[in-house]
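Quick one, C-alpha cells below:
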C-alpha cells in the first residue's frame, strides 16, 4: 500500500516540479528578452545587421500566446471552419478552425501594469516553489508513518492556499495580458480568450488539498474526543 502511495506522490511531485520549471522558464525568458530589447534600443545601431537583430529581439519580447474561440460555435460547418491551411500531403487547402495562436504584438502597457504583472509572476513562482517544498515534507512524513497529526493538517492547508494563490496570480496575469492585447489586436472570425497556460487543474488540486486537510482534522478531533472519554 505504501509503495502505491509513493508512486502517486512521485507523479504529483513531477507535475508540481514541471509547473515550477515552466513558471521559472517563462519568467526568466520574459526578463531576459526585455533586458536585451532595452539594451539594444539604448545602443546606437548603425549597421543594418544590428537593426535587424534588434527587431528580432523586439518581436520575441512582444510574443503573446492566446486561445481563439470561433464566433459561430453553434453555426454550420462552413461558418465554424472559417480558415484554411495547406496540406503538403495532398497539395490542397483544407478548412480549419484555429484553437490557439502565438502573435508578436506591441501592447500599450503602463508602468503600473508592468510592475503589477511582474509582481504577480513572482508571487506565482514563489507559491509554486513553496508548494513543492510542503509536498515533499508531506511525502517524507508519510514514509515515516507519521501521517495523522496536526502538523500534516497545517501543511495540507498551506499547500491548498498556496496553490490557490498561484492559480489566482496566474489568472490575473493572463487577464491583464488579454485585456491589453484586445485593445490593439482583433481577428475577423474569432474571439480572443485566455491562454492555455492558465490551467484550472491547479485550482482543483488546491481545493482537493484543503478537503483532505479538513478530513484529517475531523478524524483527529474525533480521535481526541474518544481518548478523553476513555
Amino acid at each position: 500500500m505504501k509503495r502505491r502511495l509513493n508512486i502517486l506522490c512521485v507523479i504529483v511531485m513531477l507535475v508540481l516540479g514541471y509547473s515550477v520549471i515552466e513558471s521559472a522558464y517563462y519568467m526568466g525568458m520574459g526578463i531576459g528578452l526585455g533586458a536585451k530589447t532595452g539594451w539594444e534600443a539604448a545602443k546606437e545601431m548603425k549597421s543594418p545587421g544590428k537593426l535587424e537583430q534588434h527587431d528580432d529581439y523586439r518581436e520575441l519580447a512582444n510574443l503573446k500566446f492566446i486561445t481563439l474561440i470561433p464566433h459561430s460555435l453553434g453555426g454550420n460547418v462552413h461558418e465554424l471552419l472559417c480558415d484554411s491551411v495547406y496540406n503538403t500531403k495532398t497539395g490542397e487547402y483544407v478548412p480549419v478552425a484555429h484553437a490557439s495562436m502565438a502573435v508578436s504584438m506591441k501592447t500599450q502597457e503602463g508602468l503600473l501594469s508592468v510592475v503589477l504583472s511582474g509582481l504577480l509572476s513572482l508571487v506565482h513562482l514563489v507559491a509554486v516553489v513553496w508548494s513543492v517544498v510542503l509536498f515533499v515534507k508531506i511525502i517524507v512524513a508519510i514514509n515515516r508513518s507519521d501521517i495523522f497529526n496536526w502538523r500534516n493538517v497545517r501543511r495540507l492547508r498551506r499547500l491548498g492556499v498556496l496553490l490557490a494563490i498561484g492559480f489566482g496570480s496566474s489568472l490575473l496575469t493572463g487577464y491583464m495580458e488579454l485585456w491589453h492585447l484586445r485593445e490593439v489586436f482583433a481577428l475577423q472570425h474569432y474571439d480572443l480568450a485566455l491562454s492555455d497556460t492558465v490551467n484550472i487543474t491547479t485550482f482543483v488540486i488546491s481545493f482537493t488539498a484543503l478537503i483532505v486537510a479538513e478530513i484529517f482534522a475531523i478524524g483527529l478531533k474525533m480521535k481526541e474526543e474518544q481518548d478523553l472519554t476513555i
